[in-house]
Structure formats: C-alpha cells, structure tokens
Amino acid sequence: MRALIQRVTGASVTIDGEVTGKTGAGLLVFVCAMPNDTKATAQDLAAKITKLRLFKDNDGKMNLSLAQTGGSALIVSQFTLAADTSRGTRPGFSGAGQPDLAKSLYLHFIASMKQLDIPTQTGEFGADMSVCSTNQGPCTIWIDTERP
C-alpha cells in the first residue's frame, strides 16, 4: 500500500456540497492499495502510521505519535498515488489495485486504525471529493510498503 500522510491542524472531505468527514489536530491520510497488498499489509500500515513520531513534544522535537497525542485521522482513498509518470505527460494508473481489492483494503485499513483506538473519519471510496486541509509544519510523509 501507499500512503501520503500530512500532519494537520484540521482537514475535511466534502462530497456533493456535504462534509462527510473531518478531523481536528491529527493526520490526513491518503491511501492507495496496490495489486499485491493484503489485509495484513493494511493492518501493518495502520500500525506504523499510528506509531510514527510526527508530533512535537514539550521541547519542540517531533517525538510523539498520533496515538500519544490523542489526535484523530481523516482517511481518504486516492488511487492516483499509484501514478506512473515515466512516459509522456499523462499519468498511468494501471499499477493501482483493482477496485474491488482496493475498496476492501481501504475499509480494512480504516477498521485497523479504529482498532488501534484512533478516532477516524473518512472520505468515500470512488467518490469525487473535495479535500481541504491545513498542513502543520508543513509535515508530509510518503510511505510505500513495497519499498525497504
């Protein structure tokens, strides 16, 4: 799986003019399932994200995790994280997981975050969404579970 994580002071997802998910201080997490991903991949990614030390401690150092701060997460599916831009000027997305697999793993990732006691809201898989966020730092992290 691939994830793009942003430390935010707030973020929201709007679909057809209605806010369907939002978070205050915490993480905005864009996720993309890849063809070889499994439920174990989704669980491992959720565990890693909740433990990443991305939040400042009392000394101003990034030393606290989402779980330690009591922050929340807004999770948005984003197949474009699988974009292949190696040829031409139009990205290809054939490297993304097929929709049925991707939706299943997206939902499993969300469930895994909730099982780790992270307050979680979401976008809607496959929907045309508007995402609004205030990135804090800025702090943006890319994770690809297939890379060492």
TrEMBL record:
One of its GO terms (cellular component) is cytoplasm. Belongs to the DTD family. The lineage of its organism: unclassified sequences, metagenomes, ecological metagenomes. GO terms for molecular function: D-tyrosyl-tRNA(Tyr) deacylase activity. Pfam families: Tyr_Deacylase. NCBIfam families: D-aminoacyl-tRNA deacylase. This is D-aminoacyl-tRNA deacylase.
